[in-house]
Structure formats: C-alpha cells, structure tokens
Amino acid sequence: MESLEFVIYPDGRVQEKVTGIIGASCSEVTAAIEAQLGVVLTNEPTSEFFALAVEQNAVATTQATYSEW
After folding, report:
1. pTM for the full model?
2. Is 60 within a domain?
C-alpha cells in the first residue's frame, strides 16, 4: 500500500515520508508537492528507494499423459 505521511512542525518545517513505493519513482510522486512546499533541505532515501521491483513472468505448461497399464 502506497502512503505519504506529512509532519508539519510549529516553525513551518514539513517532514515527508513515503512508504510502499519501490525505487526512485517516489521522487516523481512527490515532486509536485515539494515544488509547492518550497526548498527541500534534506533528502534521506529509505531502503525501499534502493530496492528493485520484482516482476514475475512465468508460464506453466502441463501435459497430461495416459498410461497403457
């Protein structure tokens, strides 16, 4: 499940945390929001940022054979 969490501090700072998005695409998701918020002071990528998306492409083939017992 993808989620964005924002903590707004009394001094106006905003902390943003993105979870559930694998790879660097989280930057694309948050770019418009960050542009509206102002200057980004720090960026700390999580382990999800460095993870690779896993795609499974498998075809299962079955063959029925009949015995002449």
Report:
1. 0.61
2. no
Q: What range does the domain containing 18 cover? A: 3-50
Helices (H) and strands (E) in the chain, counts: 2, 2
Give 26-41 as a DSSP string: HHHHHHHHHHHH----
Domain count, the chain: 1
Per-residue pLDDT of the chain (69 residues; tens, 9 = 90+): 889 999 999 998 999 998 888 888 888 888 898 899 888 888 888 888 888 766 667 776 776 677 666
**Residue 63 maps to a domain:** no
**Token pair belonging to 58:** 């498998």
Q: How far apart are CA 53 and CA 17, in angstroms?
A: 19
CA dihedral 30, 35, 41, 44 (to 10 degrees): 10
